[in-house]
């Protein structure tokens, strides 16, 4: 959500009535953030199909006129929520994975340790910090139509890119393995996420990390015949 540290106030909360000293752009951004947040919360609670524009208006504290000044319809608002959900998940995983690792030597051990931290952040997002965001990205996007599903597939490739980068993958075979891992994990977490079964989500951690470790040991980047 948009913030301005100089003002010392979050702009994703309803603005006070009367004079507030915010620019027109700040007001518009605040309204946008509140509507996107309200869409995320409503869809996570009710599902995309059952969510209405009226739900967003109530949750964001804005008028119907304000909504249609920024979005053409419910789907347009949902896609903004989806884009922010995907970006939030990617940023969270990347921040965890790229944080300093004191005492871990460079090489495969460091690569795996960074991946492990990123994956732990992913499981944490599904079970605690970003549950609503994860539901929008992994579940409800499928109810929003084929264009939304294609957009999700494009974002999934970003996860593949990050995994390949963290593990030092350099070959087509290795990248395909990363695509398989990402697709499998996305599928495996969906039902537990729908059911709110946090323990089932956490039980996936060790077996998935073991498979990745085996891939590094075997490895994902075999030498070419000419080497």
Describe the structure.
The protein has about 230 residues and is mainly α. It has two domains: about 70 residues, no CATH class; about 140 residues, Tetracycline Repressor, domain 2. It is built from ten helices and two strands. Strand 1 and strand 2 form a beta hairpin. Helix 1 crosses helix 4, helix 1 packs across helix 6 and helix 4 crosses helix 5. The N and C termini lie far apart (about 50 Å). The N terminus is likely disordered.
CATH topology of the largest domain: Tetracycline Repressor, domain 2
**Biggest sheet: strand arrangement:** 1-2
Secondary-structure content class: mainly alpha
Round the mean pLDDT to the nearest integer and report it: 85
Distance between the termini: 50 Å
Q: Compute the number of structural domains.
A: 2
Would you identify the regions where 5 or more consecutive residues have pLDDT less than 50?
1-12
Taken in chain order, the helices and strands follow as EEHHHHHHHHHH
How many helical stretches?
10
User: What's the level 1 CATH class of the largest domain?
Assistant: Mainly Alpha
Portion in helices: 55-70%
Query: What overall form do the CA principal axes indicate?
Result: elongated
CATH architecture of the largest domain: Orthogonal Bundle
How many β-strands, per DSSP?
A: 2
Largest β sheet strand count, sense and barrel closure: 2 strands, antiparallel
Strand content: under 5%
- Using only C-alpha atoms, the radius of gyration works out to 20 Å
């Amino acid at each position: 959500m948009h913030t301005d540290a100089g003002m010392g106030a979050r702009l994703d909360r309803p603005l006070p009535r009367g004079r507030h000293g915010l620019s027109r752009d700040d007001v518009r951004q605040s309204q946008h953030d509140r509507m996107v947040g309200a869409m995320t919360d409503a869809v996570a609670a009710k599902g995309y199909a059952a969510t209405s524009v009226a739900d967003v208006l109530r949750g964001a504290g804005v008028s119907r006129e304000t909504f249609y000044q920024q979005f053409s319809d419910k789907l347009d608002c949902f896609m903004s929520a989806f884009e922010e959900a995907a970006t939030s998940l990617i940023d969270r995983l990347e921040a965890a994975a790229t944080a300093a690792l004191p005492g871990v030597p460079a090489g495969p051990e460091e690569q795996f340790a960074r991946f492990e931290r990123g994956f732990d952040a992913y499981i944490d997002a599904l079970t605690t910090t970003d549950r609503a965001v994860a539901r929008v990205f992994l579940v409800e996007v499928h109810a929003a139509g084929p264009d939304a599903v294609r957009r999700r597939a494009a974002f999934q490739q970003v996860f593949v890119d990050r995994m390949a980068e963290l593990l030092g993958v350099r070959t087509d075979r290795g990248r395909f393995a990363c695509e398989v891992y990402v697709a499998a994990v996305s599928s495996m977490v969906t039902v537990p996420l729908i059911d709110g079964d946090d323990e089932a989500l956490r039980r996936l951690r060790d077996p998935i990390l073991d498979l990745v470790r085996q891939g590094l040991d075997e490895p994902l980047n075999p030498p070419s015949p000419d080497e």
